[in-house]
Amino acid sequence: MTERQIETAKKLMEEYELSAESPENTLLYLGLGYGLSEDTIRSYLGRKEDSLLEKHLCMLCRILSMDVPDGDTDYDKNVTGQMMPDPVDRLDAIMREHYKASDSKERSYEQVIEFILNDSGLSAAQIEQLRLAAQAGVPEDEVMKMAKGKKEPMEIKRCVEFFRMLNLKEKRKIRFK
């Protein structure tokens, strides 16, 4: 641990009156180990629930950049409307809900598909790189520009890698705020 992390740990231990044997210390040190910010660690250590599992679930959601459940959502309840007692089931339901929402944001890339089907001048390597660009989530208009411009496969690959790099950097900024 860095000196800054040690100072943060001491500060938060005092703030939340955690003893050395406190189970919340594990969550504190895990959060620091994952590189979470002090405010993010506070968000789960300061939760009103007494349950360590609830705090841990909140920490996992923060690490995975997912919405933190407030205990009143549909995916926190089973088919009878009762809260799910099993934390594994709750985490599974939260992840299913999160990725279901992400899937709905995917684009159809209809124009790109139509262009590829109607244009016989594209090589198999170009088509494969355009497919990878769509899979990476490059906006449809950008994929169309690459397709219409007859970019070489390596050019398309570099554009996709650059796009992924920018998205990863943006996700990291959001995660650790």
Topology diagram in text:
Layout: H1 3-15, H2 24-33, H3 38-45, H4 52-63, H5 87-104, H6 110-118, H7 124-136, H8 140-148, H9 153-175
Helix pairs in contact: 1-2, 2-3, 3-4, 6-8, 7-8, 7-9
Task: Name a few traits of the molecule.
177 residues; mainly alpha; 9 helices; elongated
Number of E-state strands = 0
**Uncertain segments of ≥5 residues (pLDDT<50)?**
73-80, 101-106
Largest beta-sheet characterization:
none
Counted by DSSP, the helix tally is: 9
Strand content: under 5%
Quote the distance from N terminus to C terminus.
20 Å
Mean pLDDT: 79
- Indicate the overall shape: elongated
Structural class: mainly alpha
Query: In angstroms, what is the radius of gyration?
Result: 22 Å
Helix content: 55-70%
What are the secondary-structure elements, in order, as H or E? HHHHHHHHH
Notes on the protein architecture:
The chain has 177 residues and is mainly α. 65% of the residues lie in helices and 0% in strands. It has 9 helices and no strands. α3 packs antiparallel against α4, α7 packs antiparallel against α8 and α7 packs parallel to α9. The longest helix has 23 residues.
Summarize the structure.
It contains nine helices and no strands. It has helices at 3-15, 24-33, 38-45, 52-63, 87-104, 110-118, 124-136, 140-148, 153-175.
